[in-house]
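User: Last request for today: this protein with heme C, please.
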Amino acid sequence: MSNSVTTVREAKSRWVRRIALILGGTLVTVFVILQGVALALPRSNPPVVTEPPWDSPQTRELFMRACGDCHSNQTNWRWYTYVAPVAFLAYRDVTEGRQKCNVSEWGVGGEQKCDESAETIQKGTMPPWFYLPLHPEARFSPQEQQQLIQGLLATFGEGGEGPGREGTPGRQNEENESEESLIPRAIALRLS
Ligand code: HEC
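Assistant: Here's the final one, the structure of the complex with heme C:
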């Protein structure tokens, strides 16, 4: 009687061990695969083409401290950006961040939404909350924050009117102008 109870117990604990092994093995395998993909991600820092006309070196310094990792081509890819799953989050943030605003490609498409920067700081949406625990240097004193906001307004302009927006429409105008100016040039050629 007592013998059969112990065999049932043993059988049960063998099952538990087997399930734990399978689960553990699966987790390890999944991690190894994800980690392989994470290592293969391109952590690029393309060349710095042009920077905005910073109103002061301090504005640039403050921006690079808190925003440059995701909004420039000078990302500091720290060791944990090589470890899954953080690697995927960091890769996505840098890719999307550069698309919205990239101060290393000013006037060639990087300016996009930079002029919303002061607003995002005031609202507290940038830098993203999860960035701060790992980057205490991105935490500003109220004075630094005010300085950065003023500097960004002076450098990027404010949502539409400032110098920040001139890049894109300006280029379109240039294209239009050059097309239009072909006509008088053609007429001038025929007249001569
Ligand atoms: C950890 C990466 C990261 C950091 C650091 C960061 N950003 Fe961003 N930023 C993003 C991403 C990702 C987006 C696009 C998605 C979104 O709008 O949330 C973005 C979008 C923006 C936009 C466009 C707003 C919009 O609504 O699309 C502005 C402007 C901006 N960030 C400014 C800043 C400024 C200024 C700082 C520094 C104070 C900063 N960001 C720091 C990742 C970052």
